[in-house]
Write a structure and sequence with these properties.
- With 338 residues, this protein is of the alpha/beta class.
- The chain has eleven helices and 13 strands.
- It has helices at residues 11-22, 39-48, 62-71, 86-91, 93-114, 148-167, 199-207, 235-251, 271-282, 306-312, 320-336; strands at residues 2-6, 26-30, 53-55, 74-79, 119-124, 170-176, 178-180, 214-217, 229-230, 232-234, 257-263, 269-270, 288-291.
- The longest helix is centred in the N-terminal third of the chain and has 22 residues, at 93-114.
- It binds uridine-diphosphate-N-acetylglucosamine.
- Uridine-diphosphate-N-acetylglucosamine (UD1) is lined by residues 86, 124, 126, 150, 178-179, 197-199, 202, 214-217, 228, 230, 271, 294, 296-297.
C-alpha cells in the first residue's frame, strides 16, 4: 500500500517515513527542501534498508502533484509539509495561509476526484491555547490561536472535517504537543534554520557552545519553579502514532471517519526541569539567564492522551532524559559532518 508523505524529509516526516517503511508501507515523498536536506533521504534508506520514492517540488504546483497521483496508486496521505515558525507567521501571514492551506486543498482535490480516503493531518496543541484545566483532552474547548501559524492548524482541521463529511472520507487530526529528540541511530533529527525558537534545539546549541546561554522566558509563571510547563513528546513515539492512526483509518468499516487524537506523554515538564534533565542525561552544562516572558507564551499545557491509548493502542514510551540523550547524539553527528 502506497502512502504519500508530504514534507517527508522534515523533522517529524522523516521519522514517520522510517516507521511506515518498517511496517511494510510503500512511501512516496514530496518535499521542496525548503526546510530539509537531501542527505536525510540517504539516512532514511540507511535505517530502513529501503528507499522511498522522492520528488522535490512545491505542492502549490498542482500539475506536478497530479502527475504523482497519475504515476502511483496512492492509498492515503500524511501531510507534514507546512511552515511552522510562530514568530515568522506573524510577519508573513499570507505566506503561511497560502503555503499551509493551498497545498492541503491541492492534495484533497486529488483525493476527491480519485476517490481516495485516509488522510492524516499534523495539527498542534496550539489549537487549545491556554486551556482552563489540565490535562487537556480532545474535548477541551478550542481557542482561536494568536499566531497565523496556529490559525492555519485550526483552519486545516475545519477543512478536513468538511472534506470527510461532504465526500465520505476518513481523516485523522493529530494534535501534537511539543516534539523533541532524534532517531536513536543519530541519523535523523531536527535541523533548525538560523537561531532556534524552540526550547530543546536552543538548549542543544547552548550545550554545544554555538549559543552563549539559554534565555529562559520568564520565571514568574504560577508553577512550582516559576517556569512554563509543556508536554515533551519523543519524535519516534510521535512517528509511531501516525502509523497507528493510519492503520485505524485503513481498517475502519465506516465510510466517514473524523478522528482527533492528542499525541503527548500526559506529563508536564517545566523549562528548568528540561534544562536539568538535559544536563544530567548528557553530562553537559547549559548556562542560562532568566529573561522577560516571551509574548504569546502560555503557562501550562500537557495532554491527556488516554484516547490514543484506548483507540489506537498507542502511548508514549520514551522518557524525557532518553529523548534528550538522542538529541545530543544527533548534535554530535551534525558536527561530525562539518
Ligand atoms: C511553540 C509554538 C507552538 C508550536 C510548538 C511546536 C509559540 C508561542 N508556540 O510552542 O505553536 O506548536 O512550538 O513545537 O511559539 N523557551 C525558553 N527559551 C527558549 C525557547 C523556549 O525559555 O529559548 C520556553 C518557552 O517560553 C516555553 C517552552 O520553553 O515555555 C517551550 O517553548 P517552545 O519550544 O518554543 O514551544 P512552545 O512555545 O510550547
Amino acid at each position: 500500500m502506497t502512502i504519500l508523505v508530504t514534507g517527508g524529509l522534515g523533522y517529524i516526516g522523516s521519522h514517520t517515513v522510517v516507521e511506515l517503511l518498517k511496517n511494510e508501507f510503500e512511501v512516496v515523498i514530496v518535499d521542496d527542501l525548503s526546510n530539509s536536506e537531501r542527505f536525510i533521504l540517504q539516512n532514511i534508506e540507511k535505517i530502513a534498508g529501503k528507499k522511498p520514492a522522492f520528488f522535490p517540488f512545491d505542492l502549490k504546483r498542482k500539475e506536478l502533484l497530479t502527475q504523482i497521483f497519475d504515476a502511483y496508486e496512492i492509498a492515503g496521505c500524511i501531510n507534514f509539509a507546512a511552515y511552522k515558525a510562530v514568530g515568522e507567521s506573524q510577519e508573513k501571514p499570507l505566506d503561511y495561509y497560502e503555503n499551509n492551506l493551498f497545498t492541503l486543498i491541492n492534495i484533497l482535490q486529488e483525493f476527491k476526484v480519485r476517490n481516495i480516503s485516509n488522510f492524516i493531518f499534523s495539527s498542534s496543541c496550539t489549537v487549545y491555547g491556554q486551556a482552563d484545566e489540565m490535562p487537556i483532552d480532545e474535548n477541551t474547548p478550542l481557542k482561536t490561536p494568536e499566531s497565523s501559524y496556529g490559525k492555519t492548524k485550526q483552519m486545516g482541521e475545519e477543512i478536513l472535517k468538511d472534506f470527510a463529511t461532504a465526500y465520505g472520507r476518513r481523516v485523522s487530526l493529530l494534535r501534537y504537543f511539543n516534539p523533541i529528540g532524534a532517531h536513536p541511530s543519530a541519523l535523523l533529527g531536527e535541523l533548525p534554520i538560523g537561531i532556534p525558537n524552540n526550547l530543546v534545539p536552543y538548549v542543544t546549541q547552548t550545550a554545544a557552545g554555538i549559543r552563549e546561554k539559554l534565555n529562559i522566558w520568564g520565571n514568574d509563571y504560577p508553577t512550582e519553579d516559576g517556569t512554563a510547563i509543556r508536554d515533551y513528546i519523543y519524535v519516534v513515539d510521535l512517528a509511531k502514532a501516525h502509523v497507528k492512526a493510519l492503520q485505524k483509518l485503513i481498517t475502519s468499516n465506516e465510510e466517514t471517519v473524523i478522528d482527533i487524537f492528542n499525541i503527548g506523554t500526559g506529563k508536564g515538564s517545566s523549562v528548568l526541569e528540561v534544562v536539568e534533565a538535559y544536563e544530567r542525561a548528557n553530562n553537559v552544562s547549559v548556562p542560562y539567564e532568566i529573561c522577560e516572558r516571551r509574548p504569546g507564551d502560555i503557562t501550562i499545557a500537557y495532554a491527556n492522551a488516554d484516547k490514543a491509548e484506548r483507540e489506537l493502542g498507542w502511548k508514549a514510551e520514551t522518557s524525557l532524559e532518553e529523548a534528550l540523550r538522542t538529541t545530543w547524539e544527533w548534535q554530535k553527528y551534525l558536527e561530525s559532518r562539518l
